[in-house]
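All the exercises in this workshop are built on plain-text protein records. A record pairs a protein's sequence with a compact description of its fold. The structure tokens are whole numbers drawn from a learned vocabulary of backbone shapes. Once this layout is familiar, the rest of the handout is easier to follow. An example says more than a description, so a record of this kind follows.
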Amino acid sequence: MKHSCQETESLISGYLDRELTQSDRQRVDLILEDCDRCAASLKQLKKLRESVSTLAFDQLTKTEKDNMTKKAKTGLGANLGQLLAIAGLILVYGIGSFWLSWELITDAKFVETGDADDKVPLFIRFGIPTLIGGVGILFFTVLFQRLKTARIDKYRDVQI
């Protein structure tokens, strides 16, 4: 089977974790049958996982422990940045959309002047606030889903 070993190597971890789609899994099965290099990569990764899984944290050297904690600390700045960005979005989007919605729903300009030309049509008075609310809910739902999966994504460091 014609394939790229480099492309297959990026799928092997997912293959071992049983996280590939059925078609990708079948494709990797066929490649492993035909390609000795890819089969050797799979064997090496299995061996590496077995040796790492039996390694206790107490058995690591000081340098290895420092490297592990250094990598964990680098994510702190990114997490703080995300938190501040979310807080800013909530403030700007929340207050701005509330203000705009309030102005539209109460028809403030019309109430102030009493002029019929200042009256906002009913569909705009309630349509725009509904649209703003819907977009906000969708945005924050997707944002929080992305933040949740970013923490547990096994493949975030994989480069293709």
Summary: The helical segments are 5-16, 22-34, 36-53, 62-106, 108-113, 122-152. The mean pLDDT is 81. The longest helix spans residues 62-106.
